[in-house]
Amino acid sequence: MNRAFETALDSFPSAEFILMIDDDEIASPLWLLEMVGGARQSGADIVGGPVVRSFETAPDRAATLHPVFDPGLSFSRFIPSLLGSGNCLLRRHVFESFEAPYFDLRFNFLGGGDMDFFKRCRLKGFTTYWSNDAIVTESVPAQRMKARWILRRGLAIGAINYQIDCKRHPSRLGRSLIFIKNFLTLPLSALRAVSMFQRTRCLLPTLHPICVATGRNLAAFGFSPSPYKQAKQTELDAERLTAHPSM
Predict the structure, then answer these.
(1) Which of 51, 67, 186, 213 is the most exposed place for a label (fewest CB within 10 A)?
(2) What percent of the chain has pLDDT over 70?
(3) Band (227; pLDDT cuts 50, 70, 90)
(4) What does each C-alpha distance from 40 to 85, 95, 177 come to in angstroms?
(5) How does pLDDT run across 42-60, given as a tens digit for each residue?
(6) Average pLDDT over residues 228-243
(7) 17 CB burial (10 A radius; 0-12, 13-18, 19+)
C-alpha cells in the first residue's frame, strides 16, 4: 500500500483526492462520483464506502451476519475512523501531514496497518465521512467462508487492536493500563457475545467478540497470527522463478 500511495502522489502532483480499492474489488458505475461528491459535500478529509461481498459459493446465514463481512453501517454520515483501506478516499494534505512510509511496516505480516493509519489520522484531528452509495464489490473465495478462517480472522483483529494500543501507549503506565484493558475484555466479550446471539441467533458471529478478546490476550504473551506472511512469501517465490526459470 505504501508504494501504491507514494506512486499515486508522485505521478499526479496536482490531484486533490487519492482513492483506493483492493485488487479483488470492482467499483460500481457511480463509485467515483459518490466518493468525490461525498468528500466535497461533507468537507471531510477521508471518505469510506461499503464493500459488498460477492461470495464464491452460496453463504449461510451465519456468514452474512458475521461482523467480518458486515460493516454495520447503513447510511451516510460522519464516523470516527475507517477500519480498512479497501474502499477509501484521502485528501492529499492527509498524506502531507505524515512521513513516508505512511503505513507502519510492523503490521505487514499481521495486517491492520491501514487501521493503525486511520486511527493516527483521527488523533491528528482529520474527519472521516461514510458515503453509503459509494459501493465496491469484493469477491470472497470459498476458503474465507469456512468457520476456521473466520474464527482466525477474529483472533487477528484482537492482535491488531492490541498492537495498535501498545504503539500508542509505550510507557510503563500505558502498558499497565493495556494489561487491565486486556483483562477486562474477557468478561466484556462474553456480554457482547450474548448480545450478538440475541441479534443473530447464530453461533459463528456470537463467537466473534470472544475471538477478538482472546486474540488481544494471546498477543500480549507473544502469540500473534501472521496471515499475510505466507502470501508474501509466495509472491517472492513467484518473482524468483520468473527471474530464474531454471530454479
Answers:
(1) 186
(2) 93
(3) confident
(4) 19, 18, 40
(5) 999 999 999 999 999 999 9
(6) 50
(7) middle
Q: Kindly compute the dihedral angle of the four CA atoms of residues 76, 57, 141, 201, in this order, to the nearest 10 degrees.
A: 60
Instruction: Give the three-class secondary structure for 47.
Output: strand
Pairs from 144-150 (Cβ < 8 Å, separation ≥ 24): 145/55, 145/56, 145/57, 145/59, 145/63, 147/204, 150/63, 150/66, 150/68, 150/204
69-80, pLDDT tens digit by residue?
Answer: 987 888 999 999
Give 70's strand partners. Answer: none
Q: End-to-end CA distance of the chain, in Å?
A: 29
Global pTM? Answer: 0.88
DSSP state for residue 101 in the 8-state scheme: P
What is the DSSP code string of 130-187?
Answer: E-TT--EEEEE-GGGGSHHHHHHHHHHHHHHHHHHHHHH--SHHHHHHHHHHHHHHHH
The order of strands in the sheet holding 136-140 is 25-27, 136-140, 51-55
Residues in the chain: 247
Euclidean distance between CA atoms 98 and 9, whole angstroms: 13
The dihedral sign for the CA sequence 2, 72, 139, 146: positive
Cell numbers standing for residue 68 = 467480518
C-alpha cell at 219: 498477543
Whether pLDDT at 222 is above 70: yes
DSSP 60: P
